[in-house]
Structures are given as structure tokens and as C-alpha cells.
């Protein structure tokens, strides 16, 4: 992945005109999130980095949270594209590839990942439709892997697989204070964990657990 220019140099390196103001602010927000985290900047900071006046962002975003929601929505869309491409392999290979694609996305796109899950946008009423589509893809893949279309079984398995995948991704991202020192190969851990979940779940459900 190509290195991005330092945040402090962005405004000097790029000139934005009125026609792409929204895109400029989104890009500025991504840079600021990557450097400071979702809570570490203001709308004025994004405007300054984009090289526009402090009032300019309000043409597109009513506040910082609405800008974060936009970034999160784009992140879910980008993640969905990766998951769909991985799933295209089909079968067990495609299912495993989806998990590794999720881990790679968290590693490659830390700003998107933080906006999607750590910005306080997850519980509001404007959840991106892409988020639901991503989970729908996971449910379909889980159903194929289990060989069942029972809604409760598929839903339970999908939640467990997502929890494992998201947990490993969050532990693996650069700067995670909770990352174990010996977390060498998250992809291998994910493959083993998902295998254990899917093979043990039918017995657990049958036992009423």
C-alpha cells in the first residue's frame, strides 16, 4: 500500500476547487482519523487540511459526526467490495478468504476501520446500508459452509464468526494497546477459530446451549 503524504502537507500538495469540496473534506477526515483517531479533530481541522474556509464544510456536513458517518459509509462500501471479491472463489476457500479480506482491510485502511467501529456512529439512526449488506454476505457464506438455511442457526453462527473476525482484526491493527506480543499470524488463528466454531456449533445448539 502506497504511503500517504503527511497530514500537515496535504493542503499544500493538493488544490481543491468548489466542485470537489465534499471529496476533499472526506479525504482530509481520513487523514486526520489515521493520525489522531475519530475523536481527535474538529470540522475546522478538516477544513484547514482541505485548504478551505472554516464555514465551507457546512455546505455538505452539518457537524463533525455527519462527516464521520460519511467516511464510515464509504468504509463499509469498500469492505463490502473486498468481501464480495473474496467470496467469489466459492466454497470453503471463498469463506476463508472473506475472513482474511476482513483482516487485511483493518490493516490496510485504519482510518476507515476506526470511523466504522470506533467513532460513535454505530448506534445512530443513519447506519449505512452497506453495513447490512456486508452482514448479509456473511450470513450467506456461513449458511453455505454449514450446509443449512435454518435462520436461527445461520444467524447465531454469523454473529459468532463476526465476533471472532472483528476481535482479531481489532487486536491486529497497528497501535492496538491490547495486541498480544505473540500474535504472529492472525489469519491462521482466524482459520482455526472459525473451523472450531462451525464444527462445534451444531452440537452446542442441539444441546440447547
TrEMBL record:
Lineage: Bacteria, Pseudomonadati, Pseudomonadota, Alphaproteobacteria, Hyphomicrobiales
HTH tetR-type domain boundaries: 19-79
Name this protein carries in UniProt: TetR/AcrR family transcriptional regulator
One Pfam family, short name: TetR_C_33
Keyword Zinc-finger attributed: no
Gene Ontology terms for molecular function: DNA-binding transcription factor activity; transcription cis-regulatory region binding
Ranges annotated as DNA-binding: 42-61
Keyword field: DNA-binding, Transcription, Transcription regulation
Amino acid at each position: 500500500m502506497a504511503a500517504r503524504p503527511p497530514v500537515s502537507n496535504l493542503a499544500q500538495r493538493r488544490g481543491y476547487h468548489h466542485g470537489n469540496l465534499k471529496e476533499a473534506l472526506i479525504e482530509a477526515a481520513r487523514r486526520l482519523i489515521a493520525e489522531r483517531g475519530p475523536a481527535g479533530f474538529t470540522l475546522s481541522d478538516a477544513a484547514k487540511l482541505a485548504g478551505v474556509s472554516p464555514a465551507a464544510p457546512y455546505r455538505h456536513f452539518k457537524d463533525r459526526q455527519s462527516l464521520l458517518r460519511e467516511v464510515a459509509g464509504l468504509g463499509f462500501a469498500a469492505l463490502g467490495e473486498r468481501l464480495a471479491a473474496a467470496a467469489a472463489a466459492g466454497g470453503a476457500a471463498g469463506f476463508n478468504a472473506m475472513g482474511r479480506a476482513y483482516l487485511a482491510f483493518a490493516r490496510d485502511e485504519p482510518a476507515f476501520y476506526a470511523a466504522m467501529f470506533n467513532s460513535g456512529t454505530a448506534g445512530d439512526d443513519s447506519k449505512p446500508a452497506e453495513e447490512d449488506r456486508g452482514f448479509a454476505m456473511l450470513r450467506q457464506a456461513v449458511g453455505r459452509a454449514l450446509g443449512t438455511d435454518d435462520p436461527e442457526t445461520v444467524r447465531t453462527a454469523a454473529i459468532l464468526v463476526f465476533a471472532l473476525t472483528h476481535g482479531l482484526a481489532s487486536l491486529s491493527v497497528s497501535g492496538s494497546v491490547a495486541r498480544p506480543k505473540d500474535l504472529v499470524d492472525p489469519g491462521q488463528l482466524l482459520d482455526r477459530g472459525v473451523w472450531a466454531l462451525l464444527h462445534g456449533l451444531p452440537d452446542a445448539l442441539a444441546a440447547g446451549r
